[in-house]
Amino acid sequence: MIRFEHVTKRYPDGTTAVDDLSFEVAEGESVTLVGPSGCGKTTTMKMVNRLVEPTSGRILVDGRDVATTDPVVLRRGIGYVIQQVGLFPHRTVLENTATVPRLLGTGRAAARARAAELLDLVGLDPRAFGDRYPDQLSGGQRQRVGVARALAADPPVLLMDEPFGAVDPVVRERLQTEFLKLQSQVRKTVLFVTHDLEEAVRLGDRMAVYGHGRIEQFDTPATVLGAP
Ligand code: ADP
Ligand code: ADP
């Protein structure tokens, strides 16, 4: 579903962020990208939805070359969740979640019904939280809305960049559990960036272990952990 072919990214200042990366993520597979800060995880992820252009090499999503796909069309098929999701502050939780269906032409009532479904899916009761504004939510709840919104267009691919990185350990553990439950229901193709080895082991069908600009291991958590 996602395929990197000899992808290198050199930033204008000369920094080589990733160097000759090749790997594949199967449809419905969750791959965690793990490694220390600055090793190229975020750069890898941002090249998938064209927020960053590779210097050389090719990336295919669902067989289509990312470099020649209209970014708007490309991103419709890719949900994106970052560490601190930006919600619209003057729209309620339900409205935030319904935004994408509305933009895609779904009528107001249907979009709100869909939004309520999505909030349920991420463990946020729409009756209790739908009418709240983002500043009336805890950090963990805001991240849940971010995930619900990313799922709104029913994208086959989900990119998650440290989505649970800014919440306390207890909430983080809960969000991980919900992610696993969600993934067992909706089966997206997931790239999940984290610097937390435990999280990478728990959430990845396979994990890409980064060294500086390179993937040093790409395998199941059991194999990675069992490796000498
Ligand atoms: P990670 O996500 O693993 O922390 P990044 O992909 O963010 O790593 O960064 C990889 C390397 O590229 C780092 O050395 C970082 O400083 C550099 N880098 C990231 N973004 C830019 C940029 N826009 N311009 C120049 N260098 C960058
Ligand atoms: P979560 O585990 O979902 O992150 P927390 O344990 O952080 O939730 O928050 C506990 C409760 O406090 C939640 O029901 C949340 O709605 C409420 N809460 C947290 N921050 C605020 C806030 N700024 N305004 C109103 N309620 C809040």
From TrEMBL:
Residues 2-228 form the ABC transporter domain. It comes from the Bacteria. Keywords: ATP-binding, CBS domain, Nucleotide-binding, Transport. Coiled coil: none annotated. One of its GO terms (molecular function) is ATP binding. Belongs to the ABC transporter superfamily. This is ATP-binding cassette domain-containing protein. It comes from Streptomyces changanensis.
